[in-house]
Write a structure and sequence with these properties.
alpha/beta; Metallo-beta-lactamase, Chain A; 30% helix; globular; binds zinc ion
Length: 326
C-alpha cells in the first residue's frame, strides 16, 4: 500500500447554489492565486487579512474534519526518545521535528490518524537524529510547503540524508530568525530563538524555538534549547508567559531553568521522552521545579501521545493511554 499522498491544495472551493456559477469561478480564481503565493513563500506572512479570509472560505471538507471549527489541535507524538509535535488548525498544519528513524512507523501512524495529507510547514529544530531522523521520510511521503531549520553545520549521515531529501523536493527552505512570524491558519507562531547563540559544541541551543498563540492561549516549544538559550530568552524583551510549556531537551536538567519557568508560568508541562531512556530523562530536578510551581505534568513515556486542543479561550488536554511505569 502506497503512502504517497501528494495532494495539492489547489482546486478547493465550495458550491454556493444560490450564488451561482460565476461566483464559484471567482472564488476558485482567488483560491488559486492565494495558494500560489503561499507556496512560493512558504508562509502566509505576506498574505493580507482579506486574502486569508478567502483561504478560510475555500478550505476543504477534509481539512475541516481535522479540527473543529476555530480550534487548534497540538499533538505531542509518542515517538520514544525524541520529539515530534503536530499543530493543526482548520486550514493548515505544522510538524515540528520527526523523531528518530527507528520510530518511523509510530510517526506515520499518528499522522495518518490525524488525517494529515499535506504539511504546510516542516520545522526541524536542530540536526540531532532524535529530531530529524524521519525528515527524509516526511519529504518523500508528503508534499511539504516549507521547511524551516537553523543555519548550523552538522556532518552526520542523518542530516545529509535529510538535506538531500529537502533539496529534491519543491519545498521552500527558510532559516527563521528571532521575531519572525508564521501563520498556521488562525494560530500564530513567533520565533523566539535568540540570534546570538555562541554554543558550538552542541546544536541544542540553536534549536528553533517558538511561542505559539491561538486566541488567548499559548504554548512555548523550543526543541532541545538549554540554559544558554533560555537565559537569552529571559533577558530578551519577549513576553514569554504561556499556558503550556514543552520542556526542552526531553526534561533534561540542562533546560527548564527556574528563571525560564518563572517567566513562562505555565499551567501545563509536556515532556517528550522514551520509557526508561538511558539519559534518565526527565531529570528529577526538572520534575521538582515543575511540581514546586504546581505545574500539571504530562509525559509521553508514561501516557503515550498527548493532545492539547485550544478553542482560543480554553485548553483541554488528553492522553492516548496511561502506560504503567515499569
Ligand atoms: Zn533531543
Amino acid at each position: 500500500m502506497s503512502r504517497k499522498r501528494k495532494l495539492k491544495k489547489h482546486g478547493k472551493f465550495k458550491i454556493f447554489p444560490l450564488i451561482g456559477f460565476i461566483l464559484c469561478l471567482l472564488l476558485y480564481f482567488i483560491q488559486e492565486h492565494t495558494d500560489i503565493v503561499n507556496t512560493m513563500w512558504g508562509h502566509s506572512e505576506i498574505i493580507s487579512s482579506s486574502e486569508q479570509e478567502s483561504t478560510e472560505q475555500a478550505s476543504s471538507s477534509i481539512e475541516k474534519e481535522v479540527t473543529a471549527e476555530g480550534e487548534m489541535k497540538v499533538t505531542f507524538i509518542d515517538i520514544g526518545q525524541g520529539d515530534a509535535t503536530l499543530i493543526q488548525t482548520e486550514e493548515q498544519c505544522m510538524l515540528i521535528d520527526t523523531g528518530s528513524s527507528s520510530e518511523k512507523e509510530a510517526l506515520l501512524t499518528v499522522l495518518d490518524s490525524c488525517q494529515v495529507t499535506y504539511i504546510d510547514f516542516l520545522v526541524l529544530t536542530h540536526p540531532d537524529e532524535d529530531h530529524i531522523g524521519n525528515g527524509n521520510t516526511i519529504m518523500e511521503t508528503y508534499s511539504v510547503g516549507a521547511v524551516l531549520y537553523p543555519e548550523v553545520e552538522s556532518d552526520t549521515k542523518a542530516w545529509s540524508i535529510t538535506l538531500n531529501a529537502i533539496n529534491n523536493s519543491d519545498a521552500v527552505v527558510e532559516h527563521p530568525m528571532e521575531g519572525d512570524i508564521y501563520y498556521i491558519g488562525d494560530a500564530v507562531a513567533e520565533i523566539i530563538t535568540p540570534n546570538t547563540i555562541t554554543d558550538t559544541t552542541t546544536k541544542n541551543n540553536a534549536s528553533i524555538g517558538m511561542k505559539l498563540t491561538h486566541g488567548s492561549k499559548s504554548f512555548i516549544l523550543c526543541g532541545d534549547a538549554e540554559e544558554e538559550a533560555e537565559n537569552k530568552m529571559v533577558s530578551a524583551n519577549i513576553y514569554l508567559e504561556a499556558d503550556v510549556l514543552k520542556c526542552s531537551h526531553h526534561g533534561s536538567a540542562t533546560a527548564t531553568t527556574q528563571a525560564f519557568l518563572d517567566r513562562i508560568n505555565p499551567v501545563y508541562a509536556i515532556i517528550s521522552c522514551g520509557a526508561n531512556n538511558k539519559y534518565g530523562h526527565p531529570h528529577a530536578e526538572v520534575l521538582a521545579r515543575l511540581e514546586d510551581d504546581d505545574v500539571q505534568i504530562y509525559r509521553t513515556d508514561l501516557q503515550g501521545s498527548i493532545t492539547a486542543i485550544s478553542d482560543g479561550n480554553n485548553i483541554r488536554i488528553s492522553s492516548e493511554s496511561n502506560k504503567e511505569e515499569n
